[in-house]
Specification:
Clc chloride channel; 74% helix; 0% strand; single chain
Amino acid sequence: MQIAALADRRAFQRVNRIWLHYGVFWLGAIAVGLVAVAYAKLIDFGYALFLRYTADRFWLPLAITPAVGAVSVWLTRRFFDGSEGSGIPQVIAMLHGPLELGERLLTMRILVGKILISFLAILGGFTIGREGPTIHVGAALMFSLRKFYPARLRSIRPGVLERRLALAGAAAGLSAAFNAPLAGVVFAIEELTRSFEARTSGVLITAIIFAGVVSLGIQGNYVYFGMISMANRLPDWLAVAVVLIGCLAGIAGGIFCWLLLNTQRWMPPYLLNLRVQRPVLFGALCGIAIALIGVLTHGHTFGSGYAEARGMLEGKSDVSAIYSALKMFSMVGSYLPGAPGGLFAPSLAIGAGIGNSLHLLFPQMQLSMLIALGMVGYLAAVTQSPITAFVIVIEMTDGHGLVISLMATALIASRVSRIFAPPLYEALSTRYRARSSS
């Protein structure tokens, strides 16, 4: 009897150990996939609703967008402090700072606020994406699973388990958001950790697999912007186009990063004081600017820019040659108030606009080829993570002959952007670490 009881106890301990090491983690990765898909559908629904109520009333955003800006800022500051922006800086701050940052920036309360307020912002036509917030949501969801592990296990190497969970959740979130599993791995290594540890790689890949399977099961094997078809024969002027797009996208992305990081150097003093002392009113003013730009461009700068980018790829869009500049200004206005919202999709749309405009200069080149180069260039310039940008775009193309050109464009744009500003997400993350130490 004692032998049988001992065997049963050992079997139970073995099952419990397997559950702690794999079961909780796998369920968390599946949950990230489910939340990512639900969040994507919610944002799509919100923007479709915005388009519906503004279709016959082009002037309506002039009233609604400022109100949404004010309410979003008030809710963020009053109830969900820490959910602002894309969320990637918060994840980086937690991974490289004290563990207490995770307990403040990666909570279920932040997760709920991120989803609800970004949905409200897209209802108002703000120029935001869902990809960065999905990374934040994934990290927060997985970080919350630490409570299922016994305290003795977490105390052996304090912070290690929590950081692995957050890192895996962030990578799974990006993978599910773009349906790009390789991009999730690369982003975690290049942007979030800036290093590679063998013992972390299995955790990342497992989370990405489970989240990806859930996304594929619900949404099917879709490609984010549709498959970008490329001609087999590369044009003679391709090298010139790569250098030019890389430089232009790098300058544009560098200026965008500089504007976000150096508000005290270009904003008038009264606006700076308004942003600090009366942030809700500042959010309303930013909403007015976003609405004005949107109305003047016949609605093309509202939302993430997904429809415009896809229309450009299909040759059906009627955006102007200065679409990229106007979209970038709207993007700055959407980010400055501090409401939740991401940069990935708007950056891809701006890059698509750069490629679309340069088709006037290179009419002999395939339009989709120029757009792909513009996408990878501007995204690399904003994130200063050229490999991640390259992988995200290459998973949307079927022209392997363009691989070297995309890599070169991403690298050039990233280097040019660094002349203007340091890596955006890393610079923003230092503010959270500084706030925690003060």
